[in-house]
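Hi there,

I know you've been waiting on this one. I reran it after we fixed the sequence typo, so this is the corrected version. Both the input and the resulting structure follow.
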Amino acid sequence: MGDVIQFDPLTSIVQDDVPPHMDDFGRAMLIGSFSDLVKLRDSAASELSRKQVDAIVKQIGSVLARYEPEGAA
């Protein structure tokens, strides 16, 4: 599902025996954040703020698309 690498930050040991994935909880949190950012972008008062938030929205959208289930549109 992508190139996510599992590691233990306390020991800095990479665990490559777990396939790359995004769990359901992480996906739900990312979709919620994406939704909040879209609302923030759409209600931004200045054009500069809108452009800055839009750049972040596009980056998160790319991550979500990467982990989209096969056949989903």
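Quick highlight: The mean pLDDT is 77.

Best,
R. S.
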